[in-house]
Amino acid sequence: MLDPKVETVGDVDVAYELFYKQPPPGKRRSEWHIERAKQSGRNLRFREMLSHGATEVERLLKARKSRLSLMEMFHFEHLQPMPKFQVILKADRKPERQTRARIREG
């Protein structure tokens, strides 16, 4: 829990969940990811090209901040025992993602 009397904060743990953008009509998602990875000008292996978008977002979130620890929400939700935490910002989930999650749970 954040203590308002303390001037500095230690490490900050951030749990996040990314959602895929829809590829342009007529393109498969994998083809679109590879195309975008090649446009970046980086020398990437095939597997890195497929996850290039997510990797770029994670780099932007982290922004070389040593006190920032990133964890995907899926992994955070399965920590045992569940740590104490405080939600500072929560974005609305996309409706199609919630539907898929309900299908998996049911």
Task: Give a structural overview.
The protein is mainly alpha-helical and 106 residues long. It has a domain at 12-85. It contains 5 helices and 2 strands; from the N terminus they run βαααβαα. Strands 1-2 form a two-stranded parallel sheet.
Kindly state the number of beta strands.
2
Note poorly predicted spans: 97-106
How much beta, percentage-wise?
5-15%
Helix share of residues? 40-55%
Largest sheet: 2 strands, parallel
Query: What is the average of the pLDDT values?
Result: 79
- Order of strands across the main sheet: 1-2
Radius of gyration: 17 Å
Q: Which descriptors apply to this entry?
A:
single chain; mainly alpha; two-stranded parallel ribbon; 5 helices; elongated
Task: Produce the secondary structure layout.
Layout: E1 12-16, H1 29-39, H2 46-50, H3 52-62, E2 68-72, H4 73-77, H5 95-105
Parallel strand pairs: 1-2
Task: Please give a quick description of this structure.
This protein has 106 residues and is mainly alpha-helical.
